Amino acid sequence: MLLPRAIRKQACVKTAVLLTTLLTLTATPVLAQGKPLKKVNIAIATAILNVGYPMLTLAKTLGYWKEEGYDVELMPVGGSLQAIQQMVANNADFVQVNASVVVQANSKNDLPVRIVMNNGVLDWSVAVDADGPIKSVKDLKGKTIGVFTLATGGTAYLNSFLRANGLDPAKDVELVAVGLGAPPVEAMRSKKVQGLLYWASAIATFENNGLKLNKLVGDDWRSYPDYSLATMQGTLDKDPAFAIGIARGMAKATVYALANPECAVKLHWQNYPATKPSGADEATLVKWDLNAQQAQLDSLAEAFKLNGGKLWGKADPAAYEHLVKFMLDAKQIDKPVPAASMIVKTPDFFEKVNAFDIKAVEADAKACKA
Question: The pTM is what?
Fold first, then answer.
């Protein structure tokens, strides 16, 4: 016969077991009641999602978008025009594209495409042999310049650069399409071309392949906003917080990458192993991809300064107005479009995007859990 104290003890044990069983049985349903992640597609103006896009890839890798409630798929689709087409066809919620294409979409096609984040400045340059005779833009007279395609976006800036230095783009310089990857490098080595007009990350890959280059840059080139995150006005009207969450994840990723570039490269390799370079020892591979990534990091930092130096991703209407004027003068568009009309108008949008602990993100980056 059990004593009263023993009976009470046994009852307590049974109660504890019962509670544990109930918690175990109900744990999964309680978690399942959490709000499911919203599926999001971002179309990116690139063919390959390499280390040059840390503001996007790290936002996914580090779970920043999941913290905001989104399951994001990154979609490399080729060029900026193709990305816009994917968004207009409802295959993408956001696009990462050249700002000039956003201006053209609004001016030429009356498409309500809205910029929600500025991630870079115009980072093109004319790369020439560092040990060769070309030391300034005037030395390009009579020379051949390699470009990705003859319709490449940098041509308008090159023409303006040439005219400002007394050269006639139609007579004094010849452009030849040499594509991307190994062909531009070979074109320089064989003297088929004496310069390469490309964006910064592309030129970094040429350097990784052994070219020693100097870069000729127009005085005003870095004053133009370029790579930008954009969406349709209808998306903003339905849920303004949607764009804030996506942009905040990218702002965090930007801060992380700038705080520890080498960690950003290693994280990229872990999650996108097919993009890791080969053909050299590990230290050299890291050096190559750090060089390629740094081109984008420099552009991110310059865009931050261009837009006031206080809020990551801020898109300043004055900077985009500067771009609109250039495009009008270059006849890339036929009618002006107010820059402010192309930028998100959600109250305190960029303040909300930057509502996170920057120091904590930097500390995580320095700790590097790659």
Answer: 0.84
Q: What distance in Å separates the CA atoms of residue 269 and residue 261, rounded to the nearest whole number?
A: 13
CA distances 72 to 97, 288, 314, Å, are 17, 28, 22
Which pLDDT does position 65 carry in this prediction? 98
Strands (E), the chain: 38-44, 70-76, 94-97, 113-118, 125-129, 143-147, 173-177, 195-198, 213-216, 228-232
Tens digit of each residue's pLDDT (9 = 90 or more) over 333-344: 999 999 999 999
Name residue 205's amino acid.
T
- The span from the CA of 142 to the CA of 128, in Å, is 14
Using one digit for the tens of pLDDT, what is the confidence trace for 83-142? Answer: 999 999 999 999 999 999 999 999 999 999 999 999 999 999 999 999 999 999 999 999
Which regions of the chain carry the CATH code 3.40.190.10?
38-122+224-367, 125-221
User: What's the CA gap between 244 and 59, in Å, rounded?
Assistant: 13
Contacts of 262 by beta carbon, 8 Å cutoff, 6+ apart: 286, 290, 368
Distance CA 321, CA 333 (A): 13
Task: Look up the CATH architecture of domain 125-221.
Answer: 3-Layer(aba) Sandwich (3.40)
Is the distance from CB of 332 to CB of 100 less than 8 angstroms? yes
CATH superfamily for 38-122+224-367 is Periplasmic binding protein-like II (3.40.190.10)
pLDDT digits (tens, 9 = 90+) for 173-220: 999 999 988 999 999 999 999 999 999 989 999 999 999 999 999 999
